[in-house]
Amino acid sequence: MERSAARWWQDAVIYQVYPRSFADSNGDGHGDLPGLIERLDHLRWLGVDALWLTPVFPSPNRDWGYDVSDYLSIHEDFGTLEDSDRLVAEASARGMRVIYDLVPNHTSDRHPWFLDACTGRDASHRDWYVWADPRPDGSLPNNWTSVAGGPAWTLHEPTGQYYLHNFLPSQPDLNWWNPDVGDAFEDILTFWFERGIAGFRIDVAHGLVKDRELRDNPLPGEDDPEPFHRRGQVPVYNMNRPETHEIFRRWRRLADASDRVLIGETWVLQVGRMLSYYGTAGDELHLPLNFPFVLAELSSEALAAIVDEVERGLPEGSWPVWFGSNHDISRFPTRWCRNDEDRVRCALMMLLTLRGTPILYYGDEIGQIDVPVPDDRIRDTMGMPGSINYPGRDPSRTPMQWEPRLGAGFTAPEVEPWLPYGDVARINVADQRRDAASVLNLTRDLIALRRARTELRRGGYERLEAPAGVWLYRRGVDTVIALNLSSRSADVRVGDARVLLSTRRDRDGERCARSLTLRAHEGVVLGCER
Ligand code: GLC
User: Would you say the CB of residue 265 lies under 6 angstroms from ligand 1?
Assistant: First the structure.
């Protein structure tokens, strides 16, 4: 089944850049926008269509940009507003769009709104944040815990009230019941849309609105509405409130008016709840990120079941999105694949052949693995020794491994980068570009095949019967993907077909009649012949 009139983001491969670790142009050990611009030719060669940058706005960096102190400017570490405009223009000249990252759940405690809110109970921005009185006995307003550990409330002594922070105390939550907050963010969206930004990834999208009565969260029970209770409670009242959907309906209209995309960090563990962020009428987020998928094991049973659930439950006209890594979790080559290259190749084939928009995280294309970061070099405030999130998220945020030399091609050889880089002699872009059978060239060829073969982009998804451990699916009519995600070889019935692309590259072009034997952790894309 072919679908017509696809929007650009349905046909796109999106590439997530963590700008601080991508390319350092001025030798300060931190990546920046001019550095990224210099590397755009690599991304064009790779074939990606859009870049999503984690936050580049001014920030005191208690949470590395996810604590914004000015939504309408660029952090000096990354460059200037002119560099941002130049990035958009240079990317566009190479056929790529730029997506930014919006943090509407909270600001930095240094944002002028919060500074004003702290000046008194009648300050004009007071009600832009969530304030509550202590309980009569002087204790915390309710039992909510923060993702960073400890209570989600901090007392602001001069005014005698607590303010809410679902993350660090330096990240006060905004009050989305106040329409002024909504208006301010619509202005922010419009500002960047007018500067050519092609859309936003929305941070903590599921968490914007809080229960108006600030009721206590329930403790984990038998029939949790949301099984995410790492902090000893179920986030029923400080997240996932129904009123959040109305915000996205408004933003969707704003985005659709100029063909922009809204990607949501919908960090929920139930597929059904994730799907709710498309809107029942498909009128909310274009691409709510699928955490149940990314947090499942790399097994045909676990992942295919989630894909089936998504395919069954998607609202009419809505579109799936798939990713394996990001800046908050272990990279998929380590998490899913235990640093095993054959598995990495299978995972890339899966991400780039499922129905939906794939998002690659920088370094996924070369199979970059997590880098252990010594305690004294940890930069993730939430992951410091002694914290509940130790050892934190730095292992998946280390510099891009461009070249097998000191500095990794990320920064000058004599510079100490902000985070240590990994084994660049083993995994790097330069060597892999020269090797036709490398992970990098597999990724590039998969993207090219996707572009050349309409069925891989627009064709329907149908799961086919297969032996245990094998995930077999058809895209459209004549394209079949066979992924053996098990450690044993397997015979798969495929009909008459030709191998268009094989994960290990030694079977490309092979013809098969009726069946095919896949080695352990091997995948193929087949063109059926009739
Ligand atoms: C999101 C971001 C993460 C950040 C958190 C708080 O989960 O992806 O990096 O720490 O929000 O802003």
Answer: yes
